[in-house]
Amino acid sequence: MSKYLFNIKTMIAAICAIAVIGCNENTTGPVNPTAPGAPDSLMAQSVSQTSIGVKWKAPLAGATPTSYSVEYNEMGSATTMKKSVGSTTLMTELTGLTDGMIYEVKVYALNDTARSFASNMVSWAPARRGSGTFFLYTSNNKTKGSGLSIFRQANANPAVLTIDKGDEWDICFDDLTSASDPRIASPGQTNFVDANYKFSNGKEARTTYWGAKFSGVNSLDDIYETAALSVPATGGEKFYSLGSIGGTTNWGSVIASKNADGTYNFAKVLVHRATTGIFVNGSGTEQYIEVSVSYQTVANVPYALKMKLDQALSAHAAQKLND
């Protein structure tokens, strides 16, 4: 056997040996990270005319997230904007937005490169806001006022008004109907008005609808939602018994106040719990409740522009039927 044939056989044997050793080694490729579950309970609020606040809950299953990706786009736009958020931060603010534009927002949980399914989608819009804190006094106090006018006139600030201007109230502190069961109420649901919903000055009470109720909140900025207040055709005017609200924290809701021209103004209302544990402060003619409001400064602009959103969805559905 020539030395060349011997060398070839030796090389083949060596290659086979390497192959056998390689096959017998217990090696694996890179391990792909496990994806987290989808973030839960995405909610939003308008912060200003150019920003939206969003918050969510951590996934209920899957791997622990290492970060979150908040992704949003103008409704109808294919351009997606992204914001990365740390693993322990479950809220953020989207800035640099366009006033009056509806944005579609989703959140994804990430574990390194593994990406979860999307959270629920929320459609929301930035909007101008005003705010203030006010004292509404018992009906036995004739000088300090029992009702709050949030939307008195264009560019005017909210003000507490006495009953002779009750037709300008959007909400009121009602202990006239029941002194033992004081309420926060739509003016038309109180004994401040007669059977025709008119005050003693002959003018009709404003129509104020109430939406979702929020307990366990410390401030108006704790109130996030998945949809803005829907304006009901009927039956939306309400009163809430302050004595029956349980818990130890403040209480909030969202209202829509109807204007004479058929437009609506929207606001959030927070009733502060007194240090005594109840909502009513003081005694005698100095009894009062403390109320904070955050309100949209433009008519027909609720916190999520729901009316415009409904119109956009209807237009989209009509277009699909025509395609």
Give a structural overview:
This protein is mostly beta strands and 323 residues long. Helix content is 12%, strand content 34%. The N and C termini lie far apart (81 Å). Residues 11-25 and 306-313 have low confidence and may be disordered.
Sum this structure up briefly.
By secondary structure, this protein is mainly beta.
Helix/strand order: HEEEEEEEEEEEEEEEEEEH
Low-confidence stretches: 11-25, 306-313
The 3D shape can be described as elongated
Beta-strand residue percentage = 25-35%
Q: Give the tally of structural domains.
A: 2
Biggest beta sheet attributes: 5 strands, antiparallel
Q: Terminal Cα separation, in Å?
A: 81 Å
Helix content: 10-25%
Total helices: the number is: 2
Number of strands: 18
- Radius of gyration, Cα only, in angstroms? 30 Å
Which structural category do the helix and sheet elements fall into?
mainly beta
Integer average pLDDT: 85
